[in-house]
Amino acid sequence: MPGVDGFMYPNEVELQWSILIVLYPYLTGLVAGAFILASLARVFNVKEVQPTYRIALLTALAFLLVAPLPLQLHLGHPERSIEMYLTPHKTSAMAMFGFVYLWYLLIVLLMEIWLDYRKDIVILSRTKTGFMRLVYRILTLGSQNISEESRRVDDRVGLIVTIIGIPSAFLLHGYVGFIFGSVKANPWWSTPLMPVVFLFSAMVSGIATVLLVYQVVNKLRGQPVHMFCLDAIAKYLFYVFVIDFSLEMLDLVHRIYESDESFRSLDFMVHTKLYFSQIILQIMLGTLVPLVLLGANQVMKFGESTRRKMYTVAGILTMIGIFAMRWNVVIGGQLFSKSFLGYTTYKVEFATREGLLPAIALLLLPLGILWVLLKLLPPGEEEQTA
After folding, report:
1. 54 partner at 20 to 30 Å CA-CA among 280, 316, 341, 380?
2. Considering all CA atoms of the chain, what is the largest pairwise distance in Å, rounded to the nearest integer?
């Protein structure tokens, strides 16, 4: 057996990134994937997914608002974040994320949501009373014109913003894979396919999230869950999942074929410390089972109830599998020494700053924000029909 288990040499870098850093690319991936699904309805005019357009946008916003918090909690000094904008470090990929995040939040996502909801906001500012009337008046930003001409302008500008938002979503999450892939000293991360794999896995997780959120939201609102919409989302999820899985297998085959000096150590990791998270959770439960469930619905005709259950199970397992993939990349890449002779173990604490409890809270927080957003900006009956 290579190396020594549970030991790293004194001159080696010990594990520094915790579950919070696992959570960070996971949340940004959900944002990018949800926005890409919304773009199918807005830019590519895919009528089948139109009922999820507004839900996908609000889902992306909810997760985007929480996405930087794991980093802030990990660093411990959130008040220093402003320095990223006041004294920009142009050669730091991580520092540049601040500008990418600000661009995507203010220019892309918030603008598209406001343009799409502007008519509704103006109407609500006239019909609501009390405090909520004041809230909606503020949200109008002083624009009360909801004529047909103004709505056409909103649609044209919104389309342009969405088109700009597609590469912006790729940039938002692709740079995370770029950061890992550019660390040449770590063979687990150093692969040119890392940014591409991160992008497609982000699309997979985002689409799966919207598939689940759409069903839950409509059930809670007493609205029908349209099967034509679920079938379309599941179809796109299946196609993107196949591409994502193929890229990961391509990377694996390349590593096996190359078999450099790090291969023996990485192989040992997969068969021991990462066996459950990678083989069981990521590949078997989180990839193969969802692909079988989704693929079966592409070639066979099941009843609506059966299809809905299969889509739900596939969506949940997909979310678990993508999280396991992020775990294996972030944590797995730190469990072995640079000399490939020593290994260490990561133990997740519970009620600490970087423990399991704050991680769970950060995972649930976007759902609470989404609930508030849906109360403030309801999807509307017109979005529930094709």
Report:
1. 316
2. 73
CA distance 188 to 83: 32
Residue 8 domain flag: no
Rounded to whole angstroms, how far apart are CA atoms 102 and 105?
5
Write out pLDDT tens, residues 155-199. Answer: 999 999 999 988 888 887 777 777 776 666 677 777 778 888 888
**CA-only gyration radius of the chain, Å:** 22
Q: Is residue 220 part of a domain?
A: yes
Structure tokens at 224: 């029908």
Domain assignment of residue 61, given as a range: 19-380
Whether the Cβ atoms of residue 48 and residue 386 lie closer than 8 Å to each other? yes
The answer to whether residue 13 is domain-embedded is: no
Q: Is 172 exposed, middle or buried (0-12, 13-18, 19+ CB in 10 A)?
A: buried
Give how many domains the chain has, as a whole number: 1
Q: What is the 3-state secondary structure (H, E, C) of the chain?
A: CCCECCECCCCCCCCCCCHHHHHHHHHHHHHHHHHHHHHHHHCCCCHHHHHHHHHHHHHHHHHHHHCCHHHHHHHCCHHHHHHHHHCCCCCCHHHHHHHHHHHHHHHHHHHHHHHHHHHHHHHHHHHCCHHHHHHHHHHCCCCCCCCHHHHHHHHHHHHHHHHHHHHHHHHHHHHHHHHHHCCCCCCCCCCCCHHHHHHHHHHHHHHHHHHHHHHHHHHHHCCCCCHHHHHHHHHHHHHHHHHHHHHHHHHHHHHHHHCCCCHHHHHHHHHCCCHHHHHHHHHHHHHHHHHHHHHHHHHCCCCHHHHHHHHHHHHHHHHHHHHHHHHHHHCHHHCECCCCCEECCCCCCCCCCCCHHHHHHHHHHHHHHHHHHHHHCCCCHHHHCC
Residue 370 lies in a domain: yes
State the Cα–Cα distance between residues 70 and 18, nearest whole angstrom: 10
**Cα separation, 128 vs 130, whole angstroms:** 7
Confidence (pTM)? 0.90
pLDDT digits (tens, 9 = 90+) for 167-176: 888 887 777 7
Tokens 């809270």 — which residue? 361
pLDDT one-digit tens code per residue, 274-308: 999 999 999 999 999 999 999 999 998 899 999 99
